[in-house]
Structures are given as structure tokens and as C-alpha cells.
Structure prediction request, 186 residues.
Amino acid sequence: MPHADPLASAARLVVDGRNVLGAMRRAGGDVPPQALIGRLWTIVGAQTGIIVVFDGRRDAGAIVPERSSRLLVRWSGFESADDLIVRIAADGPEETVVVTDDIELGTRVRALGATSFRSRALLERFARQRQTSPGVGHGRPPAQAPTAGGRGPSGKGDDEPERESWKPGRGATKKTGNPKRGRPPA
Prediction:
């Protein structure tokens, strides 16, 4: 039975790197390859291997990792990236999901039995992931409106008084001087 989420059952995610980077740039500005690779880690399960394929030879200044336990970055060299992606998909098509906006490439990998979907679906997944993750410095969830039971976000009823908030110098942090010398004269 096919799974509703193609990435949940994929053993291998193959990404047309330049194609997806182009979609990311159209959606929100200039994006380096490292940003794509960093985001891919967050949307697939630990069992899914990731292969990112870029056209041509490796750029001299490229800092993207070449290989890790779950990630492989491939440069197509003198062959087209599309042909390399088709060869990768042919190795295990039923376990492979290819992300590309190239209609011809999508048709070729689906003919082998692999799954393909458009870059837009990947970008939507990135956006959902970003919205659900906590931001740095935001350790608490946002305050919620009172519920039907008359209790606010603190769990207190409307008739209970609010506790005074912390203020500097409220006792615990109030300086009193050196205890060995005695209190300074007032």
C-alpha cells in the first residue's frame, strides 16, 4: 500500500540541486547550496539517505560536504545531472523519491518506478518545518486566550488575583553591604 507522504517511506531522496536552488531563490532571494543541504536534514527521517546532484564539476569554493553517513553530494561532471539522477534512481526505483521541476526528468524516473515531486512541495515542507520549530530565545510558547472554563493561560480563574511580577531589588537581590563589617550607617 503506498504511503500518503512519499518522504516517509523513501529509503533514498534524490534532489536535483540546481533546480531546487533555483526554486528557493525565486521564493526568497539568494540561497547557497549549504542552506539547501541543511534544510534537507530536517525534513526526512533518520532512515532516509539523501543524494544531492549538481550539474557540472565541483566549484572551487564550494563548502558543501561531499559525504556523510546519510548525505552524499554528487557533481555530474561531464554528463548531465539528469542522466546521473536517472542512473541513481535505476538502482532502487521503488525506494527512491526524486525532487525536480524538470518535467522530462520526472517522466524518466517515474517510468523506472521511482516517485517524483516538484520543488514547490519541498519548499512547502521547509516552510511548515520552520513554522513549527522554536526560535532562539523563544523558550515559551505564545500566550493563549482564556478557555471556556474561565481560566486564562496561567490556569487561574478570573476571580484569582495575579501575582506581582519580579522586580529587581525586591528582597533577594537587594544589596545590604558586607556582613562582616556590619551595616553601613544610614
Notes: The two ends are 82 Å apart (CA to CA). The first strand starts at residue 12 and ends at 16. The first helix runs from residue 17 to 28.
